[in-house]
Structure prediction request, 955 residues.
Amino acid sequence: MRTLPDQEIVVVGGGLVGAALAWGLARRGLKPLVLDGEDLSHRASRANFALVWVQGKGVGAPHYARWTIAAARQWPSFAAEIMEASGIDVGLRQWGGFTFGLAESEMAMWTEEVRCVAEALGGDAPEYAVLDHAETARMLPGIGRDVVGAIYSPLDGDVNSLRLFRALHVGMLNLGAGYRPHSDVTEIVPDAGGFLLKGAWGEVFARRVVLAAGNGNTRLAPMVGLAAPTLQSKGQILVTEKCAPFFPYTSTTVRQAEEGGVMIGDSQEADTSSIATDQDISSVLASRAIRTFPQLGSVNVVRSWSGFRVKTPDGLPIYECSPTHPGASLVMCHSGVTLAPHHAHLIADAIADQAAMLADKRFSGRRFHVSQP
Amino acid sequence: MQTIRSAEDLAARYDIAIVGAGSAGMAAAAECAKLGLNTIVFDENPEAGGQIYRAITRNTPAARPYLGKDYWRGAGLWNAFSATAAAHVSAAAVWSLEQQGEEAELRVSVSGRSRIVHARRVILATGATERPMPVRGWTLPGVMSVGAAQIALKSAGLLPEGPVVLAGTGPLLYLYASQVLAAGGTIDAILDTTPRRNWLQAAPYLLSFLSSPYAWKGLGLVLKVARVVRIFRSVTALEITGKERADSVTFTAGGKTISLPAKSIFLHQGVIPHANLANAAGCEMGWDDRQKCFAPVIDGQGRSTRPSIFIAGDGSGIGGAVVAELDGRIAGLSAGLELLGKQPSEDGRRYIRLRQKALRGRTFIDLLYQPAPSFRAPVESDVVACRCEEVSVGAIRAAAAGGVAGPNQLKTMLRCGMGPCQGRMCAATVTELLADAQHRSQADVGTYRLRPPIKPVPLSEIAALPHTSDAVYAVTGSHSGH
Amino acid sequence: MFHSLESPKNRVKITVDGKHIEVDATANVAMALLGAGITAVRRSVVGNAPRAPYCMMGICFECLVTIDGVQNRQACMVPVHDGMTISSQSGARTTEEGGK
Prediction:
C-alpha cells in the first residue's frame, strides 16, 4: 500500500551524492523526494577526508581525469552558489595540495601516477611539481626529516565537508526538495509508468528514481536493470583537538580543518565488514603523521572514525540511465566532495532533461560486464 | 596491594582488569583478588575512592567531620581493597577497550605512555556523571555542578563564596547544602526545579520508599536544610546572567519572576551512567525511561553484550554507592568464578539479595527527582547545548525540524559532541532535544556512537604502540612499512 | 569562588600566569586555582568566551590549562607539585611545544 503521496522523482540516498543531485533537481524546479536511511546507516559522507582533489586521479582513464579537473575548476562558483542557497560557507580552500612520500618507493609511485596523467592529458594536464625534501621544506618549514619528497599540485584543496553536507541538505530543502529519514529502500518494483519503492517504513510510487545510495546501490541497481558492483574498502581517520593553524595547504594524509582539528588518514582494509575502528591502524597513522609533521606529537587525538568507501572495481564513478527501465538512473562514486559541482549541475540537469546519457558513456556500469558489447 | 606508577611496570596480561576505583571498582577488585585471580584496577583519578568516596584515602573524620556518616563507609572499602594482592594504577586513562576473541584488549595511558594490556575479563566501574543542566548562562565562570562543589569540599575543604545559590533537583542538592552548613558555610538559596506533578508519579512507590534506609535520612536532611536556607519550589525559567562571570540568577517560582544576586551557582539534576568506554567498546546501550538515560545493557550478573566485559555500579544504571558496591561484588564474583570454571557461590546469591534490598526506594527517588522536560530539552534557542563546540539549542532544533536522522547525523551536521569531552556534556541533551522536536521516544532517537580514544591521547603515545604488519599494510599497501 | 576551611599543613609554590602563589600540596590544579580566587581559566576555542572548571571530575574539559609547558591538560585531574608552572589558555592550542 502506498504510504506516501506519489512522486515525480525520488532520490534514494541522502549522502553527499544524493543531496547534491536533489539540490540540482530542485534547482531545476523539480520537487525531488530524498529517501534516506537510519542514523547509523553506513555513510561514506560522514567519513570522508574533505578533499577537492585532482592530483594523480585518472591514471589510465583520461576521461575521469578531465571530469575531475573540470569539477575542481567549478568549485569556486559552486561554493558561492551554495552560500546563496543555504547561507552556509563551506570553507573552500584551493590553496594547493601535497602527497608526501615517506620513502623513495612511495615517491616513485606518486611521481609515476602524476606523470601518467599529465602525459595522457597533454596541454590540459593540471600543474604539478615533484619536490625533494629541501624543496618541500622551503614551502613547509615544519616538515619532518623522514619526508623524502612530495608531489605538489596547486589546483588541489579542500572544503569543510561537514558544512558542505549540511549546506546541501539545507539548500535542497530551501529549493523545494523533500527529505525523509528512516526510509531505507529495500525493494524497487517497476510499476505502470514508474516504480514502487518499498521498505519497512512503507511504500511510495515515483515516476522516476535516482539511485544514490552509495554501497547500497549494489543491491538496488539490479532491480532496475542496472549493475553497481563494488569492492569492500574501509578507510579510517584520526581527528585531533583543535589547533592554531599550522598547515595552510592540504594533503592526502594530514589536513587541518578550518575549525582547527587535524585529520589524519588514510588506510584501506579490504577484508573487514566491521565498522569499528582498528587501533593498530591508528598507531601506524599516528606515526606517519608525526614523521610528516613532528610538531603534531603532543597534540591530542580525540576521535577515530571509519567508513566504507564507495569503490567500484576500477575506482571510477558510474553514471548511467537504465536501458531496460526508463526513468531509473544510477549515480555512484568515491569522490562525492570533489565531484559535487558536477552532480548538482551536469548530472542533475541530464536527469531533469531525461537525457539518454548522464555523462561520458565510459562511465556506464556496462564496462564491468564480462562480455562488453 | 601493588601500586603501579608507570606503563613499563604493567604486565601484558591479567585475569581481571577493572576500570574505576570507586565503590564498585574497589569491591569488585576485593572479590576477584580473594579468588586468587591476577587483578588490576585502572583509575583515572590520582586517588582511589571515585567521586562518592573522593579523597577517602587521606580524609579523616577528625579533620572533615561534616562529610557525614555515609561517606566514611568508603574507608572500609579502601582498606579491604588495599589489603588485597590486586594491582592499583591511579592516574591511568583507559582510552580503548575491545573484545578480542575470548578476551579483551585495553589501551591505557599512564604517566605519559600508553600500553596495551590484555585481560580475560574486564569489569567497567566507571561511575556516574551529572546529567547536564543546560540553561542560559551555564557556561559562565562562577557556575559549576553541585557535584563539583562537593568534590571541592571533600578533597580540599573548600567552601563556596556567597551569595551561593543551588539550583536543580535531586537529593545531592540537600546533601551538599547540609555538608556546607555543617562545615560552617552558607547557602543563600535553593532553587528546587522538581516539578510538582512528580509527586503524583512517585506517590505509588512512597510506602516502599519509607521502608528504605534513605527515607528518614533524606527527610531529615531536607528539614535541616529548610530551617536555614531559603528554598524556592517548582522553579522554572531559570537563567544565569553575568558578563565575564555569573553575577545573578533569574527564575520563576510561585507565579513570580525573581532575581537573586549570586557569585557561586551550582547546578544539578541527577546523575546518569558514565558509559563512554562501554559505548566505544561496542556494548549495547538501552534507554532507561525511569532514570531518563541510556545505560549499557547487562544481565543480572553485570555482563554486557560483549561477553568478556562486565559493567558494575552507576556506570550500568544509577543505584548509588551501596548498590554500586554490591554490583561490584556480584560482577567480580561472577567474572572470577567463570574464569575458574566454578559455579556461582552462596556469597554471590547473598549479594544479589542484599542488592535487591538496597534498591528499595529507588523507584520513588527516580520518579520524584525526574528532571522536568523543560530542563532536559530546553526551548530557549540561545542556550548552549554542546559546550565544547558551542552548539546552541536553536541550531539543534532547526536540524531536527529539517529531519535529521539522529544524534550521529546531527553530529556530522553541527559538530555537537565532537569536542574534547566527546559528548559527555551534550549527549543526554541531544537525545532529549531530538525526541522532543521530532516527537519520537528517546529510545528510538538513540545516542552517539563513540570511538576510541575515549579520552584525548597525545598522537605520540598512539604512534609509539606496536605497528602490526596488517596495520602497516592497510596504511602503506606494503607489509614492510619501509 | 571558594575559600579554604583549613590551614594546610604542607604548602607548595606554583606559578600561575607569572604570579607566584602558595597552595595546599594535596590539591589538584583546578582546586588550587579556585582556592586562590582564580575563576576563569581559559577563553573558549569556538566563541572566545570565558570558561571555568565545571565538573571537577575529568568529564567536561572546561578546565583546560597549560601545565609545565603541556597544553590542554585537565586542571582537575592533575595534582599540584612544587615549582609547577600554569598558564591560562586563549583559543586553540598551538602545535608548538609550550604553547604560545
Q: What stands out?
A: The first helix of chain B runs from residue 23 to 34. The CA atoms of residues 120 and 442 of chain B lie 34 Å apart. The mean pLDDT of chain B is 96.
